[in-house]
Amino acid sequence: MSSAASERLETLFDSLWEAYAAITPAAARIHALLHARGESFRNDHVAFRTFDLAPLGLERLAAPFLALGYTPTGRYDFEVKKLHARSYSHPSGRFPRVFISELRTGEFPPVVREIAEALLEQVDPRALATDEAALTWAPTWPAPTLENYERLLEHSEYAAWLAAFGIRANHFTVHANDLRSVAELAELVELLRAAGERLNAEPSPIQGSAAERLEQCSTLADRVEWSFADGERASIPSCYYEFAWRHADAEGKLFDGFVTQSADKIFESTDVGAQTRRS
Ligand code: NI
Q1: How much distance in Å is there from the Cα of 45 to the middle of ligand 1?
Q2: Closest CA relative to residue 104, chosen from 140, 136, 58, 135
Q3: How many angstroms separate the alpha carbon of residue 279 from the centre of ligand 1?
Q4: Considering the entire predicted model, what is its pTM?
Q5: Ligand 1: centre distance to CA 244 (Å)
Q6: Are 244 and 174 in contact (CB under 8 A)?
Q7: What phi, psi does 240 have (nearest 5°)?
Q8: How far is CA 64 from the centre of its chain?
Q9: Does residue 275 carry a pLDDT above 70?
Q10: Radius of gyration (Cα) for the chain, nearest Å?
């Protein structure tokens, strides 16, 4: 790949990490915890969420990655949550996989689509200036009212999260295979629990299996004080940090895709209900 493309990807992921870490204290904390143990690791994947509405649908978000050498690796359907997703990998293996999901707004009561369309109509023109800006320009749209956030929440945790935070990395993921001080994902789980981190889906936080060739777990999303329209503020779940352990096939090649059922459970790391139950 050209060094120009490589530099653009590095800049893009740096800027995505910065915006994500700013509202995800657990990510910075765990990053520091692992570095203090002498670990260095790659990001397994970075995930994005969007509505199936112009001008910021899934394909628009995928455009900068495709332009910089990424190739599609899979399509996924989440029937209950009413969304679908696509994954992409960079052939160099130097950059994280990308997972982009899109909410099928037409499958909800009209209020969901109405609120989403109103946000899309107010997208900051600077977010549409370049393909990369669609991912990094924040805020993507003006904050909704707290009332509209709560109306979305009644129908879709995903929609409410997206309305509040706009387009940004929903999570980064540690490529746990790179860690030298743990032999399997269960050991990392013990380490995180001992450090006082709260994990999604306790008491069985690990999703997937060696047989499925992908094991994943995640923190529960941090809560942040967030500003809504009309000066209202509320404490809501922001982003989570994920950990993925990939298993090799008979030829020794690591699994490159995602497992729908596991991803379905991981999506719940930002649920307001999960937050309340555990806090
Ligand atoms: Ni993920």
Answers
A1: 7
A2: 58
A3: 23
A4: 0.95
A5: 8
A6: yes
A7: -125, 170
A8: 17
A9: no
A10: 18
